[in-house]
Amino acid sequence: MAGYIEKKKVNGGVYYYLTESVREGGKWKKKRKYLGVHTPHGFEKPRSEPKHLLSQSELKLIDEIQEAYSKAHKVGPTLWKEERDLFISFIFNTNAIEGSTLTLAETRKVLGGKKISGKKYDVLAARNMKRCIDMIFSRKDGMGEEFVLALHAAEMGGILPGAGNYRQVDVRVGKYVCPPHTEVLRLMGNFFSWHSSASKSLHPFELAALVHLKFVRIHPFRDGNGRMARLLMNFILLKNGYPLLNIFDSEKLLYYLKLQEADFKKRSKPFVKYLFRVYALQYKGYLNLKGVR
Question: Domain 55-286 falls in which CATH fold?
Fold first, then answer.
């Protein structure tokens, strides 16, 4: 049984399991094999983050954005209709960052059910992204492994063979050499364990930003990791009642530079600060944010 090591606390006791997510009857289920009460060789406790990566004034500003936005919109499934242009812009930009040639106008046509000639895979990528957004809004539970795998299957369905499965090959992104594929299961196990713990202590925005950063560092899939990171970031935000964060294709050079800086310096804080500035400027219209630069 391939999988990752999971630590569970039951009635005050600590137990270890080898856990694997498998698809049965079209649904994802977890299968566990009991390993015992002793810490297995190779099990690593996820590294904790500082209590907060943003200042109290920055966190307060984000919460003020959330409060102002929620007065105008209900964050839920109906938001697609209320903020259609915002979500179409997100789909256009998140795909354009990865090389899609669809224009914003073409993306709007595709999502409106209209046909455009050529660009088969770009059209499919836009439709797939709409499916992913629907999945985010219909998801009642947290960010489990079965959800991440199903989300990737929806994102890359018809585009990438083996969509919804972790990569079985080594990859690199520019100068960044991703962890070996043999480490992906263990690293993703640590990722989910970290998320479970961090969600209890970090502000939702900090959590969303770190989910993005940690996910792309692992690069668990052969393709589609950038879009997945931005989807999961927004899953955290939307499920906590915060508006969507859009990274614009026109600013992708700075976005990539901030990701590279975080990897080079081995520090998460600058990337979280960068996303805060993007977010604050994006929702400047809801508040008097003249001091934000």
Answer: Fic-like fold (1.10.3290)
